[in-house]
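Exercise 7. Given the encoded structure of a 613-residue chain, write a plausible sequence.
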């Protein structure tokens, strides 16, 4: 469109005179939505024949008759036969996982009824530090979204002895970022939960800096729900956690005063199980939230975002009004911003969606954000000035040497024979992996990736400082049925170069191409080469949403043609370097296991660890 809009969200205090004047009819509303059924998430009711009067970016009046607020210049939207609900909010989301810029993410989700979220940009923070976080915040402020950012707690997620990142955050960086404005809402998921439990000075200091700023801290606790250390974690002031995979996980967090976030990402499907805390255990739902965590661009295109998650929760037996609460009011209350967003009440920001059909279908037909109609019937009708990333963020992949097949060889402790090794086993539709023990053949002093055992090599190369640090191990469950390899600079959370394959030459080819295009994803097989460039920090594409979704789909097809049939394989494989999720991962520093006793490095070869014990 030719017209460019500015979406302002001024503090309520600055708007009170105009809102009161509009509510009594002295000043006329800028927008009126008339005659719909109000989804009142505060009272839990569906109220027919209601209307909403808006002044600027905020709601001035809600009632059955708003005729006194209508003037000659008032824009009127007729909502008869439609529901009027608060815009959906994502209570835990990493925008970078969509491979979209914030602008393109906004244009993808606003037509779906998503008007805001609480975003943890720890992906770009691990690559670019505070500069990356600030870029995401500045871009978000140009969009219609109610985009609240969290400062990453996990830069790195553990420590330099376990992984290498492009930056490092401590209490000083947390305090600085939280001073950037009220839309810096809190501390992102605290992944180093052993560090919190056992009093690590940096982790405790980051939480203290957050609490002193009057903000909230989010959690990431993957020990069992009945572990005695969960209350220790809660005692640190962490009041929300998305690592819930069972109804008991939800229950234990709520009982400790935490908000339990139930996740339905592209590759992690936890809602059907966790929602049983409500549908079967009967727990109060007001501290339950629906979130996405990570969804790919192709998932946004074909399934949706929070609209999809709400529909899915309803399909599990949750009442529609309750599911909407879990994606609006509960989320806003958790972050302390319910005065502004999360419900349709006088004084709140006018983030409103209109829906047709049955409420359970979550069929969004119009989206109003900050008092302006921005999307209608699945298409954006508003536009705004684009955001330009500086050139230096397009040059973040530095290995220090040119890769060769020799970099993917695994030296064995014997020249010939068979040895027991630890292998990472992929778990489809879940974030966790399993450690399995397998016996592998040794030829000429090297470990071979045996396709007959569904074995691939997995390698991680440090790509931030050109240090040359790298490690190679073994993974099963990928499913390649022909010689193939995938290389990617999207490798949570340190986002080093991750390469997986069953052929050293193809792994080399894929890795070189990922480096040459300044970051992204490359699949190489007998069928050819498929590329998905991600030059922004090696994580995101500057392209439009439709193009990014198409490129993401092309990677999925290439993997499937090579035999990898994992659901959302790219996202699943990208987590194999995330060393804070059980049971076993690979970083540039080597194999890392996480168990009840904490996080530690181990050898690929079982007998070597046994000899050291």
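Solution.
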């Amino acid at each position: 469109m030719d017209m460019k809009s500015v979406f302002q969200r001024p503090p309520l205090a600055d708007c009170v005179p105009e809102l009161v004047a509009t509510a009594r009819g002295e000043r006329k509303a800028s927008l009126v939505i008339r005659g719909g059924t109000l989804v009142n998430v505060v009272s839990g009711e569906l109220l027919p024949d209601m209307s909403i009067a808006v002044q600027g970016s905020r709601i001035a009046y809600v009632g059955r008759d708003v005729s006194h607020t209508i003037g000659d210049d008032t824009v009127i939207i007729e909502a008869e036969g439609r529901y009027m609900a608060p815009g959906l909010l994502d209570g835990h989301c990493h925008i970078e996982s969509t491979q979209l810029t914030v602008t393109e993410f906004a244009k993808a989700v606003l037509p779906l009824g998503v008007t805001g979220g609480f975003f943890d940009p720890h992906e770009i923070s691990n690559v670019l530090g505070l500069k990356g976080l600030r870029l995401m915040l500045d871009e978000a402020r140009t969009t219609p979204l109610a985009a609240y950012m969290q400062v990453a707690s996990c830069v790195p997620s553990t420590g330099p002895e376990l992984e290498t990142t492009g930056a490092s955050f401590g209490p000083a960086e947390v305090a600085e970022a939280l001073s950037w404005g009220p839309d810096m809402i809190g501390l992102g998921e605290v992944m180093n939960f052993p560090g919190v439990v056992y009093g690590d000075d940096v982790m405790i200091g980051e939480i203290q800096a957050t609490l002193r700023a009057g903000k909230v801290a989010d959690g990431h606790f993957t020990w069992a729900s009945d572990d005695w250390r969960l209350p220790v974690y809660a005692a640190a002031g962490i009041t929300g956690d998305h690592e819930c995979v069972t109804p008991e996980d939800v229950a234990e967090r709520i009982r400790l005063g935490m908000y339990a976030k139930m996740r339905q990402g592209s590759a992690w499907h936890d809602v059907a199980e966790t929602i049983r805390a409500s549908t079967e255990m009967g727990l109060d739902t007001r501290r339950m939230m629906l979130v996405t965590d990570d969804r790919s661009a192709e998932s946004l295109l074909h399934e949706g975002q929070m609209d999809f998650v709400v529909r899915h929760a309803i399909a599990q037996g949750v009442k529609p009004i309750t599911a909407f609460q879990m994606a609006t009011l509960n989320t806003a209350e958790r972050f302390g911003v319910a005065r502004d967003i999360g419900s349709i009440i006088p004084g709140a920001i006018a983030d409103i969606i209109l829906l047709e059909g049955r409420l359970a279908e979550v069929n969004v037909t119009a989206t109003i954000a900050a008092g302006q109609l921005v999307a209608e019937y699945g298409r954006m009708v508003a536009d705004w000035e684009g955001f330009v990333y500086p050139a230096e963020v397009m040059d973040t992949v530095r290995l220090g040497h040119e890769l060769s097949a020799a970099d993917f060889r695994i030296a064995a402790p014997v020249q010939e024979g068979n040895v027991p090794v630890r292998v990472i086993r992929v778990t489809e539709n879940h974030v966790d992996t399993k450690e399995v023990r397998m016996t592998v053949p040794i030829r000429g002093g090297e470990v071979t990736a045996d396709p007959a055992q569904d074995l691939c090599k997995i390698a991680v190369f440090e790509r931030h400082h050109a240090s040359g640090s790298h490690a190679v191990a073994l993974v099963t469950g990928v499913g390649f049925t022909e010689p193939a390899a995938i290389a990617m600079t999207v490798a949570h959370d340190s986002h080093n170069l991750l390469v997986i394959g069953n052929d050293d030459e193809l792994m080399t080819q894929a890795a070189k191409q990922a480096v040459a295009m300044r970051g992204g994803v490359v699949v190489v097989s007998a069928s050819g080469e498929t590329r998905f460039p991600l030059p922004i920090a090696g994580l995101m594409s500057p392209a439009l949403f439709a193009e990014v979704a198409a490129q993401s789909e092309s990677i999925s097809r290439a993997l499937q043609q090579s035999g990898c049939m994992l659901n959302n394989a790219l996202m699943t494989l990208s987590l194999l370097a995330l060393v804070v999720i059980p049971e076993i991962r690979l970083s540039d520093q080597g194999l890392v296991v996480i168990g009840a006793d904490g996080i530690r490095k181990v050898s690929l070869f079982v007998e070597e660890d046994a000899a050291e014990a």
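Remark. The chain is about 25% helix and 30% strand. Students should compare their own answers with the one above.
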